[in-house]
Design goal:
This is Chromosomal replication initiator protein DnaA. Residues 182-310 form the AAA+ ATPase domain. Residues 367-486 are annotated as: Domain IV, binds dsDNA. Residues 1-111 are annotated as: Domain I, interacts with DnaA modulators. The protein has 486 residues and is α/β, with parallel strands linked by helices. It has four domains: 1-107, GMP Synthetase, Chain A, domain 3 (2-Layer Sandwich); 131-312, P-loop containing nucleotide triphosphate hydrolases (Rossmann fold), CATH 3.40.50.300; 315-391, Helicase, Ruva Protein, domain 3 (Orthogonal Bundle), CATH 1.10.8.60; 395-485, Chromosomal Replication Initiator Protein Dnaa, Chain: A. 54% of the residues lie in helices and 10% in strands. The strands form two sheets. The protein has a six-stranded mixed beta sheet, sandwiched between helices. A three-stranded mixed beta sheet has the order 1-2-3. Helix 11 packs across helix 12 (338-347) and helix 18 packs across helix 19 (453-469). The longest helix is centred in the first third of the chain and has 39 residues, at 2-40. The protein starts with a helix and ends with a helix.
Length: 486
């Protein structure tokens, strides 16, 4: 019995060491990734570096595995960034002598659905999931799965809505519904990490559920370009055109990457015209409005903006809290204190992807090390994410914004006047100062004409209560939060 107990203890110790190693690798990768983002720029980093998953280190060879979701992306990163990644890891960890970039072994390989001119599929033709045709012949009786290119977790049910994204959400639902939408194409415009790709996938799921025998086409604009060039070189443009124009729903992500490619733009233009003429549905997504796409010919810009352009704004603090709360169901019964959620929602403001990533990292660290989730742990373990998001809002900035909003003089923030038209804006400014800055009640009081800390506490509690009972007050505070956080 003692021997079995010792073996169990050694196994437990080994498991702990493996978990600790995984945490350390994740922390090193967070630092390396942040450095690459600064070097490469946000766009390249988001497209190619962020999807990398860190594997383990072969202790004998010193080789570290880096995984990407598709063969195309793995080859692209290997060709362009292998040396840079290898050097960064050698600096971060002395035991790393080389990096190996490959497709994640758990990733299912997907048969390509390339079409001949007559619409048939050749057998055993490989594909990348970033450009995927999906049809009833691929679904069988089991319904839709991730093996045909869309993420099964990215559905409308999993999308959390707020004022910032409700228009885009409702428009996307219409596009995926049974009845024909009033507009096409739908153009989703949002900054990175705000949910436009989620909505693209959700439209695909909903459309297949409503039209089980239909065929949809999902790709990135960058992948569209690659396929177009390959077809051009192989003298297979007839097949390429037939393939594109045989779909009932066309979903194209990151359309900004088609900038400057005249021949590909022309083919996309003709495809849009052909599909619209047949009543097909088209959805595009980009990080900027159609009019802001430089290097795109006017005819294509006209087609992209002729339907509905739905803008997804940056999530406000209330929406960020809702998203964090929704994600906690995956970790039950783990407890995450309310002050930690408030802290994350208040400080990680750039995009939803980073917000959820911060929560996941914090919970993973707590579970792997056996610690409780706390505000101190969040501040210690999320320094990279927090520093990247931190834009320090000052009380002076809050006072100036509130005075402009309510059209009162800045001196009223410190005056002794008790008129309602002055008192209420002053109380709102105190409330925002407590929500958006790390200042204590006495410090805030001093910035408002030397008022006592009890006055500030009263103002904060009053505005919190009014937001629950008065829709106008809640609307004012939401508007001010959006202005100050933008």
């Amino acid at each position: 019995m003692r021997k079995a107990s010792n073996n169990g203890a050694r196994q437990s110790q080994d498991d702990f060491m493996e978990d600790q190693e995984a945490v350390n690798l994740a922390a090193d990768w967070a630092d390396i990734s942040q450095g690459l983002r600064k070097d490469l720029g946000h766009q390249l980093h988001s497209q190619w570096i962020r999807p990398i998953q860190v594997g383990g280190i072969d202790k004998d060879t010193g080789t570290l595995d880096l995984f990407l979701p598709t063969e195309f992306s793995a080859n692209w990163v290997k060709d362009r960034f292998a040396d840079r990644l290898s050097l960064a890891w050698k600096i971060a960890r002395s035991e790393v002598r080389d990096v190996r970039i490959q497709v994640h072994p758990g990733r299912r390989q997907v048969a390509d659905l390339r079409l001949h001119a007559d619409g048939r599929r050749p057998a055993n033709d490989g594909a990348d999931t970033s450009m995927m045709a999906i049809g009833a012949d691929t679904l069988g009786d089991t319904g839709f799965t991730s093996s045909v290119g869309l993420d099964p977790s990215l559905t409308f049910a999993a999308f959390i809505t707020g004022e910032a994204n409700v228009l885009a959400f409702n428009a996307a639902q219409r596009m995926g519904a049974t009845e024909k939408p009033q507009f096409s194409p739908l153009y989703l415009k949002a900054a990175t990490g705000q949910g436009k790709t989620h909505l693209l996938h959700a439209i695909g799921h909903s459309f297949l559920q409503a039209h089980p025998r239909s065929r949809i086409f999902y790709c990135s604009a960058e992948r569209f370009m690659v396929e177009f060039v390959q077809a051009l070189k192989a003298n297979q443009m007839l097949e390429f055109k037939a393939r594109l124009r045989s779909f009932d729903l066309l979903l194209v992500d990151d359309i900004q990457f088609i900038i400057g490619k005249a021949s590909a733009q022309e083919e996309l233009l003709y495809t849009i015209d052909a599909l619209l003429a047949e009543g097909k549905r088209l959805v595009f997504a980009a990080d900027r409005a159609p009019q802001a796409l430089d290097g795109v010919e006017p005819r294509l810009l006209s087609r992209l903006s002729m339907g509905l352009v739905a803008d997804i704004q940056a999530a406000d603090i209330e929406l960020r809290k809702k998203i964090l709360t929704s994600k906690l169901t995956r970790f039950a019964p783990l407890e995450v204190p309310g002050d930690v959620l408030d802290f994350l929602a208040r400080t990680i403001t750039r995009n939803i992807r980073e917000l959820v990533g911060g929560l996941n990292k914090l919970i993973a660290y707590a579970q792997l090390t056996g610690q409780e989730v706390s505000l101190q742990l969040a501040e210690e373990q999320l320094t990279d994410i927090l520093s990247a998001n931190r834009r320090r809002i000052t009380i002076d900035e809050i006072q100036r914004t509130v005075c402009q909003f309510y059209r009162i003089d800045r001196s009223e923030m410190s005056s002794k006047r008790r008129a309602r038209a002055v008192v209420r804006p002053r109380q709102v400014a105190m409330y925002l100062s407590k929500v958006l800055t790390p200042r204590s009640y006495p410090e805030i009081g001093r910035k408002f004409g030397g008022r006592d800390h009890s006055t500030v506490i009263h103002a904060v509690r009053l505005i919190e209560d009014l937001r629950q009972r008065d829709a106008d007050m809640d609307g004012d505070v939401r508007s001010l939060l959006r202005q100050l956080e933008s």
